[in-house]
Amino acid sequence: MHDYLMLLHETPADQPTMSESELRALIQRYSDWAETLRQQGRLSAGHKLCDDGGRELRRPGAQLLASDGPWAEAKDVIGGLFIIRAESLAEAQALAATCPHLGGSSWITLRQIEAL
Prior knowledge:
Layout: E1 2-10, H1 20-39, E2 43-48, E3 55-58, E4 65-68, E5 77-86, H2 89-96, E6 107-112
Antiparallel strand pairs: 1-5, 1-6, 2-5, 3-4
């Protein structure tokens, strides 16, 4: 088995406005999806990221440069992440394809985590 990182991207400007009940239903779909994977032994971790804050760190030379986020020029944000377990990239892709995040202008980046 291998671990795969799923980064959940979204374009906030393209997201439809949801009522409170629609938002609760969407959260429930994510919870149900994650619980199914957890019961199958396929979910290692899952987290929603905070909507505000964050830091971008760079070291172009000797000095560390840190800037606040989110960034107005960014067209998309990473809203959350999951770490799933699968035998292959194809299997990880099949699992990710069932995630409620996909649809509209939202997408997932799927990367294998290198074993140390």
